[in-house]
Amino acid sequence: MSIFSNAISFHFLFLVIFTTTTYGTIFKIQNNCAETVWAAAIPGGGRQLEPRQSWIINLKPNKPQTGQIWARTNCSFSKSGHGTCDSGDCNGGLQCQSAQSNGTSPYTLVEYSLNQNNNIEDFVNLSFANGFNIEIDISPVGIFESGQSESRVISYYMIVFCPKELREGNNATTARHFIIQNQCPYTVWAAAIPGGGQQLNSGQSWTLNVGPGTTGGRIWGRTNCSFDASGRRGCETGDCGGILRCQRYGTPPNTLAEFALNQFNNMDFYDISLVDGFNIPMDFIPLTSTCKNLECSADINGKCPNELRALGGCNNPCTVFKTNDYCCTNGQGSCAPTNFSRFFKERCPDAYSYPQDDATSTLTCTTGGNYRVVFCP
Question: The whole model's pTM is what?
Answer without folding.
Answer: 0.58
